[in-house]
Amino acid sequence: MRALLWQQWRDRRGAIAGWCAGWAVLVSMYVATWPTVRSHAKQYDDILAGLPKAMRSAIGAEGGGAFSTPGGYLTAELLGVTGPIVAVTMGVLLGVTVLAHDEDDGTLELVLVQPVSRTRLLLARATAGVLEIVGVLSVISLLLWLVGLAVGLGIGLIASARALLMLALLCCEGLALSVLVGALLGRAARTRAWAGGVGLLAFLLAALGPSIDGLEHAVRVSPFHTLVASDPFRSTPGAGSVAILLAPTVVMLGAAVLAFRRRDLRLR
Amino acid sequence: MCVRGLGKRFGRTVALDRVDLEVRSGEVVGFLGPNGAGKTTLLRVLTGALRPTTGAVAVLGRDPFREVPAARRGLGYLPGDLRLPSHLTARRILELFAALRGDGGSSDRDRLVERLEVAAGRPRGGLSKGNRQKVGVVQALMSRPSVVLLDEPSSGLDPLAQEVLEDEVRNAAARGAAVLLSSHVLREVEQVADRVVLLRRGEVVASARLDELRQAAPHDVDVLADGLDVAALRALPGVDGLVEQGERVRFAVTSGALATAVRVIADARVEDLRIAPADLEQLFLHYYQGDQR
């Protein structure tokens, strides 16, 4: 099994480097623009104040003055909008490679003739994906801290690691969702489409939920809302917040194992 | 390996219906049938890739779908539609499968790579179909499995490699492996199989030793004779497809009617007579021609 995982990492070196580069550009861009934002914080906060409360809540800026502090600024910009979308996209795309990609191109048939159980294969590959996510976002948290030092951001390494770890947990949810859909469907394109669609729908519901009657309370258990509400750049997230981000991953991976163990391989 | 009352459905399509099959240690069973007969489905059920709808399957005494590692530890499989992991050289692919098996198959691996002249250093993308197939054959046989499942193993192989493959299949059986070989190359089955199983529309229609099947199948008779009583021949039960061309007569006759037919022929002045037992191709046509119409 170790051989298979090493091979998986070797195969995905390019993709992992690509995700690192993408996150690096995104995070560096936000951090590098902090000095400009800080000097115009009043105007930004005035613009935010004109938005409906529900929208401010979605990006963690309901209290006002979000752009006056680096933590508030990064929460609104990085954790409120772009970060979750990129994290879920990354998770979904990595999740497709756990099962659906190889099942679709037929290489899984020969792998599963070896003395390796489906449960073990799925969990080992999903674990490899989780480690990739944590690895990439750990590097990015270090980068955020270093670029932040250069521009006087004032976010410590611990705060940076905390926030990026919460983002990694959301990314793992995307991965688990994609693994589950792949375990059910066994086709790469359909898995990307369904998992991506469900992820996007969940994000939209979390963003628009506070404005919709009957959804305002349900949104509080949404991972997207939890990511922002836990305010990881300024405080240590509580166990409840971590559980909301972690539990769906565990449940979806468990469901994926059950689904994958019981069905036929989708073979051409 | 043992299959009892096996059924497999895909929605409303019946792929396999009440299939019984047993392949014993040291035996090579040729598995024949037209396209869509269910051969590949049966092999995939035996590997545990597909779950039986009804019936029981045992490979090395274990259910390949439920008791995965134990059932597959002694299994070697070459799929009909071979897909290999991308970006890897043939050598790396073989090392990967050897590592997954956790066995010391390296000595047989190197020997097979050498015998089949596999282009081991070339990446999969640079391998021809024949070379990919050779990699598939090596991975199926390198760990000296106790059960070998081969689906169209000679597909894409050159005649030299085919000969090596046949030899290796015989070697595997000689050391006690149970081999199930699905093939459209009837000569190959004739060369290596002890027994033949014929599958039609998901059902086993015949399972016997080759000589027994030949006995049951019609012989081809070609006779050149003066004064031959063609009407008597035509009237014989067991004579079929009689064609008359001047003094030359051709027909097929079952083993049971052969002696009577020869007596009728002997009453004429025979100039030339040829009686050929059915080869595997004729047997195949005998069982399946109705399906093609």
Provide structural commentary:
The complex is a heterodimer of chains A (268) and B (293). With 268 residues, chain A is an all-alpha fold. In chain A, 76% of the residues lie in helices and 0% in strands. Chain A is built from 13 helices and no strands. In chain A, α6 packs antiparallel against α11. The two termini of chain A are 25 Å apart. Chain B is an alpha/beta fold and 293 residues long. Helix content of chain B is 38%, strand content 29%. Chain B contains 11 helices and 13 strands. Chain B has helices at 39-47, 68-72, 90-101, 106-116, 129-141, 159-174, 186-192, 210-216, 230-235, 255-266, 280-292, and strands at residues 2-10, 13-22, 28-32, 54-58, 75-78, 147-151, 178-182, 195-200, 203-209, 219-226, 239-245, 248-253, 269-276. In chain B, α4 (106-116) runs antiparallel to α5. The two termini of chain B are 34 Å apart. The chains are: A mainly alpha (268), B alpha/beta (293). At the A-B interface, α1 and α8 of A face α2 and α3 of B.
Per-chain topology:
The complex is a heterodimer of chains A (268) and B (293).
Chain A lengths: L1 H10 L1 H20 L1 H6 L1 H9 L3 H6 L11 H29 L1 H5 L2 H5 L6 H34 L5 H29 L2 H21 L14 H7 L9 H24 L6
Helix pairs in contact in A: 2-6, 2-9, 6-9, 6-10, 6-11, 6-12, 9-10, 9-13, 10-11, 10-13
Chain B lengths: L1 E9 L2 E10 L5 E5 L6 H9 L6 E5 L9 H5 L2 E4 L11 H12 L4 H11 L12 H13 L5 E5 L7 H16 L3 E5 L3 H7 L2 E6 L2 E7 H7 L2 E8 L3 H6 L3 E7 L2 E6 L1 H12 L2 E8 L3 H13 L1
Helix pairs in contact in B: 3-5, 4-5
